[in-house]
Every structure is written in structure tokens, then in C-alpha cells.
Amino acid sequence: MYDCIIIGTGAAGVSAALTLRARDKNFLLMGSASLSSKLSAAESVGNYPGLPSVKGAELKAAFSRHLASAGINITVKQVTGVYDMGGYFGVLCGQESFEASTVILATGVEAVKPIPGELQFLGRGVSYCATCDGLLYKGKNIVVVCTSKAMEDEAEYLASLASSVVYAPLYKGAAVKGDNVRYINDMPRSIEGGMRAERVVFSKETVPCDGVFMLKSALAPSALVPGLKAEGGHVAVDRLCRTNLAGLFAAGDCTGRPYQYAKAVGEGNVAAHSVCDYLAEKNK
Amino acid sequence: MYDCIIIGTGAAGVSAALTLRARDKNFLLMGSASLSSKLSAAESVGNYPGLPSVKGAELKAAFSRHLASAGINITVKQVTGVYDMGGYFGVLCGQESFEASTVILATGVEAVKPIPGELQFLGRGVSYCATCDGLLYKGKNIVVVCTSKAMEDEAEYLASLASSVVYAPLYKGAAVKGDNVRYINDMPRSIEGGMRAERVVFSKETVPCDGVFMLKSALAPSALVPGLKAEGGHVAVDRLCRTNLAGLFAAGDCTGRPYQYAKAVGEGNVAAHSVCDYLAEKNK
Q1: For chain A, which has fewer Cβ within 10 Å, the N-terminal or C-terminal residue?
Q2: Is B209 on the interface with A (CB under 8 A)?
Q3: What is the chain A residue with the closest CA to B259?
Q4: What is the pLDDT of residues A11-32, one digit of tens each?
Q5: How high does pLDDT run on average in chain A?
Q6: Is A89 or B37 the better-scoring residue by pLDDT?
Q7: Which residues of B205-224 are buried (b: 16+ CB within 10 A; e: fewer)?
């Protein structure tokens, strides 16, 4: 049982991890080994105090070095669900599960909004998780929409199972291996079907399929955590970064504007302190 | 008439200033030319993301360079009062007065009157922050002076690291756990030493030690601003750093715990964005 699992490796997750380390807690930092794709994409950040006119890639490198110097490893996992077990949390990553007394959501804001039909057919031909649902599509024809290079290994796993894959990367420099993979450089417009998803409509063509995988670097928090209260599309938190679920905290862009590194770093710090206070209270 | 006057040059004030500059606002940053005395005194800051294991003096220097590179000068004034004039604010500095549409309070936590030696040895054996400096005293003998029951968690955290703790509570009903904790019901008179703090002199005995933690609660900041709502000795703010007075915002240690650079920097950023939103709404 971990003291805490931090979900997300952007500015908020990094800040929370550094503070939990300073407080000698037993925790996992889960996310992408390359931290946040949004972070590395920023051209120039002028208002992160202490690092004047820093490029996003430089700030990302500074965060990586800081984690390394503090001895913090990133547990590279895609979290597919967080469940309040009454006193602790179950964190599912496909077929694997982890347990922790507390969770900090630092999942950022998913830039990609759901397309029409995506939520409607979720669980009926639409999946967010290759590991969870891949085997259902053995020998089938699927469409894979992917938002980040970091998830190409999941796409390759799907290609190893499916009969054919139409692969739509929403990023540059895609390199998914597989003889049965056809690339499509087009934006998906909608998912259509009857009882189940049957086809993906792109701008220039419509692709019939047995299933659709939407591989996203982050899921909407309300999709991730049953029972979590949201406000205006963000996780509802108080000044101590507490959500409506005891022991579950949230920090960074997922709690709302301004979407700023300084704000995310501050909330990560506050959430980590709230975790320590919560654990101290619980262990009395 | 300025768009904003920022009061305080610690981490929160610096962060607010950098963001107001990025948003091209007309503002004054008021405080000490040497920024925050607490900032420069910190022995080592491990959890300010991007700057690993930075000394307080180095972080202060980085903040100063950042202000300079952004062309922000500090207006070196001691603010003696802030008055809500209905639509704008009057900021008094002794005989001088300034006017601004908005004010950001970033005044930090007013220290209880320091005892002789406390400021002299700050950063050289004297610390205000268990989270920041606790690990430096693993296996050491320390004295902890604490002004409030609310901070007993921090004292227990220190006891979990230190070899021995002499605990001097300046309040009633102290209950800090730990086999290695000895209570002393006496007022600290002074801190003495050579290059570093070496002992605390109490009325009835002198305690040799490797370090001294002065855990202080906040004083009422409402002394500065008539009508300002406080909560538990801190400025009451919402998640957007708004106080009960329209146009008056607060950020950093003055809004409450945790007293951390990351948290202060985050709130300074949020307060500056709230100033921009307030001005945009007002000028509609």
C-alpha cells in the first residue's frame, strides 16, 4: 500500500512528487517518461520565477534533472481508472492494479475534445485502452486514433492482434510498425454506427471498422474517477486541493484556469502537503 | 493611477509582477530591494521545481535576475496602510501615498518578534520550515520552539528525523508524540553560537543543539487593510486569490499554509490573472 499515487507528470505532478519526497513519503509518480507533451511544446515561458525566458523543452529538461537528482523514477503507466475503496484507492492500469491511501490527480487538460459519437459508443466499439480491450479485436479490422508518439507501442500491440489497422496520428513523425497498418493523415470527424460503432468519418473518407481505439495521453478526470465532482469541465477542489472524495486531491490544469506552470507547481505543492496532513490525521 | 500595486517582494510578489509584466500592465512592486529575508535565509530548498537543491540565496539571486531581465524595478517602500476608496485603492507609505485600481497583498507571514540571535543565525542552524530543512537534521539534536498547536504535525515530523528534540511550546496543551521528545516549559531568551547556532538559552537552563526550528503562527494581516476579512490569522481568499474587498487580492504565505515557494509562486500567478480579469471587467 503506497502513501500516495500521483497521476500525471506535468508541472503539477513533478512539484507534488518533489514535496512528497522531501516529506519522506512512499509514493508512485505515474505518467509519461517524457513528462508533459504540452510542456515540451511551449516556445518560451517568461513568467516562471527563477528561470527567465526559458523554452518549454529547457523547462522540461530542468524538471527531469530535478526528479533524477531527488531519486524519483517515473512509473510509466496509462491509468485507466481510479476507484474509491473506502479508506484507500485502487488505481487500475489496464490489467495491473495498485493501491494507495491517497491519490493526486495531475492529469492536465486534454487538448483533444471527444468527437461526436465517441462517448456514445464508449464500451460499444470505442475503447481508450489497448491493454484492456485489445484481445476483443483479435483478427478484426480497427481504427486507431492516437494523440501522442508516447503511445505508439500500444498501437503496435493492437496491430499485432488485429487483422488490419487504420492509424490516424494527431501528431508529427508517426512511426508505428506493422505490415497491416495503413496511415491516414486526416482528422477524424465523427464515429457512427447502430448498436455499436461501425465506421469512422474522416474529412476525406469514411473507414468501416469493427472497433475504434482512441489513444489519448490523458482521460477526462470524470471518466477516470467514478463519483468525482466536476465544475465547468474541471475537477472541483477547495484551496487545499481537496476534491469531494476524501483522500483524493487534484492539482494543475485539471483544476481550472489559469493554465500556467507557476500555478500548476503551486497546486502540486499544496496537494502534497494536504496528502501529508490527511495521512497524519488518518494514522492518529 | 496604477493598474496594480503589489505589496511584498517575496516569491508571491515576484511571480505576480512577472505575470503582470507579461500582460503589459502598469504596476508598482513595493517592498525590500533584497526581496524576502526569509527567502535569502533558507539553507536549502529541495522542492522548487526546476532548481534542484538550491540555496535560498541562490533562489533569491535567480528571482532578482529574472526581475531585472523583465525590466521590473522594486519600489523600496514600507507600506503603512491600504484603503479601499470605492473603485480604487489608496496605498500609504508613511507620508507618501499612491493610487491603484487593484492591490495584491503578498506580505508574507509577519514573524513573532524575533529573539536575540534568531535572525543572526537564520540559515545557519536556525530554520522556520520543517519541510524545507528537516532532512538536514536527520540524526541530530534539535530545539523546536512552536507558537501554535496547529503546527504540532511539523514538530512530529522533525522528531521522526532527529535524534533528540527539546520542544518548547509557547502555548498550552502541547501533545507532540515521540520517545525522543523532551518538553521544556520555559521561554527561549536567545540563540547563541559561533559560525552556527550552538545552543538556546532559556530562563532556567541552556540547551546545546545542532539546530533550532522556530515554528511560528501567522499574525493578523488585517492590521494593514481596514475591513479585510481574515481567517485563522491569514487573509481569507478564494481559489482565484480574491479577498472580501473587490479589487484586492492576496497571495503567498499571508493566505495560509503551506509556507512554500512553489505555493507562493503559484498564487502570485493566479492573483495577477485575477487582476487582469478584474480590470477587463471594470473597463467594459
Answers
A1: C
A2: no
A3: A270
A4: 999 999 999 999 999 999 999 8
A5: 91
A6: A89
A7: eebebbbbbbbbbbbebeeb
Beta-carbon contacts of A6 under 8 Å, excluding residues fewer than 6 positions away, are: A13, A16, A17, A20, A27, A28, A29, A30, A103, A104, A106
| pLDDT greater than 60 at residue B219 | no
What would you report as the CA-atom Rg of chain A, rounded to the nearest whole angstrom?
Answer: 19
Residues 2-41, chain A, touching B (beta carbon < 8 A): 11, 14-15, 18-19, 21-24
ipTM exceeding 0.90, yes/no: no
Long-range contacts of range A187-195, CB-CB < 8 Å, 24 or more positions apart?
Answer: A188/A115, A188/A143, A188/A145, A189/A115, A189/A116, A190/A115, A190/A116, A190/A117, A191/A115, A191/A116, A191/A117, A191/A118, A191/A120, A191/A121, A191/A125, A191/A126, A192/A117, A193/A117, A193/A121, A193/A124, A193/A125, A195/A124
Cα–Cα distances in angstroms (integers) from residue A194 to residues A143, A204, A207, B73, B241, in the given order: 17, 22, 15, 65, 49
Q: What tens digit of pLDDT does each residue of A80-139 get? A: 889 999 899 999 887 789 999 999 999 987 656 778 998 788 778 988 878 778 888 999
B92's grid cell: 500609504
Q: Which residues of A touch B268 (CB under 8 A)?
A: 49, 262
A46 touches chain B (CB under 8 A): yes
Nearest CB neighbour to B266, from listed A59, A238, A265: A265
d(CA A8, CA A271): 13
For residue B256, list chain A residues with Cβ-Cβ distance below 8 A. Answer: 239
Q: What is the set of domains in chain A, with CATH numbers?
A: 2-110+218-282 (3.50.50.60), 126-215 (3.50.50.60)
- Residue among B24, B25, B29, B47 with most chain A CBs within 10 A, to mutate: B47
Q: Does B62 touch chain A (CB under 8 A)?
A: yes
| CA-closest candidate to residue A266, choices A15, A24, A29 | A15
Put simply, whether A160 touches B (Cβ < 8 Å) is: no
